[in-house]
Fold:
Amino acid sequence: MTDTKISRFDVAEYLTDEILINAYLNEALTDGAPSDFIQALNDVARAKGMNELAEKTGIRRESLYKTLQSEKPRFDTMLKIIDGMGLQVTLTPKAEPSLEA
Structure:
């Protein structure tokens, strides 16, 4: 019998380019609960580096961790984090549901 080793999956290790990061965040925002989006932002922040994000946002690293683990972070703080990631929030109308069966 062989010993099977299982390592913990960390999505942050796979968020390697801006297109993938954008798609990941949009998917979490579109199809997930607010907590899913906050977790996705946490994953992206870890992928990009918390120290770098702290410098860009002016938010201490410890506060970033706390914010990105909170159930209800402040909206203005979330906007600073998103801006620090080089992203912006854009709203678009929802697509009308198709009547085709």
